[in-house]
């Protein structure tokens, strides 16, 4: 019988560390934190890479982001000024710089996501060069994968897969324009019947629901949700105790969870709500985990496709997409039941931070 008492990891012997540029004295003995680098990059692109030792690259990313931000702010000011002139009945000689505004927004997004992924990659390389153990923690990994798809894989040293996921996620952003332009017909119809909408609150509510359904089930939204869910699922599957996975390797090395049972149950519940099937993958049950994830992704995808083709109405599409709640509840309940049943068995992973 195994005791459920958390087993703290044994202290690691001191390892030599490379001194980053500009760091001397006692600071050189402090390992670079992958998680801190990610947070710094999320707050300001380039700061995470600077912290992790890639200072030239960090300065370049930060400078480019500031330049794009200034450019985008100028284009936004020009657009707002032109719209105000049109509202006041004045004529505008030049076309609105919508393309430039969209380009600035997209480039800023690319730099922001690259800043987070690049910071994680630089921190991982710095720790490897210094001989520090990898930082592996499911909560941090899931959070990084949710905010920046692919960052979780990069934190595990799987750079190609991480950057592929990030590239797919970012490449979907340009499709937002064409997808949102499809709402113009709905909005024009609403503008033509504004008086009727004011006298019929039920019609106004129906219109709001239609717009919401078309946005939620549009291709960019569904596709990005798919990439984000797959990123989280792959991270959890990598840490699962299946043969050949990183989790199995860590289990052989004697690593264990250090969190209490209630904290693990809460974490699994949140994980199941964010990405149904991910808790099962983290527990090593890949068949059930991928099945629940497939159901959760297939229903909105099918509903969005049928809605775009005009086969079903927005209300019907929303109803089909809402069936994913069953996959969410099933994932949470199943993972919690298994966790409670196996509470006296050791868990395979610990926080190495």
Q: How would you portray this structure in words?
A:
Keywords: Membrane, Transmembrane, Transmembrane helix. This protein is mostly helical and 353 residues long. The chain starts with 33 loop residues before the first helix and ends in a 12-residue tail after the last helix. The radius of gyration is 24 Å and the shape is flat. Helix content is 69%, strand content 0%. α5 packs antiparallel against α12, α7 packs antiparallel against α12 and α16 runs antiparallel to α17. The chain has 18 helices and no strands.
Can I get a quick summary?
By secondary structure, this protein is mainly alpha-helical. The protein has helices spanning 34-43, 47-52, 55-87, 98-130, 138-147, 151-155, 159-171, 176-181, 184-192, 194-199, 201-216, 219-239, 246-252, 261-274, 278-282, 286-308, 314-322, 324-341.
The biggest sheet, with number of strands, parallel, antiparallel or mixed sense and barrel status, is: none
Number of strands: 0
Distance between the termini: 29 Å
Tally the helices.
18
The portion of residues forming beta strands comes to under 5%
> Looking at the structure, what is the overall shape?
flat
Radius of gyration: 24 Å
Instruction: Estimate the mean pLDDT confidence.
Output: 80
Topology as H/E string? HHHHHHHHHHHHHHHHHH
Oligomerization status of the protein chains: single chain
Low-confidence stretches: 1-27, 346-353
- Which structural class fits the helix and strand makeup? mainly alpha
Percent of residues in helices: 55-70%
Region (Disordered): 1-25
Keywords: Membrane, Transmembrane, Transmembrane helix
Transmembrane segments: 59-84, 104-124, 162-187, 232-251, 257-275, 287-308, 320-337
Biased composition (Pro residues): 1-14
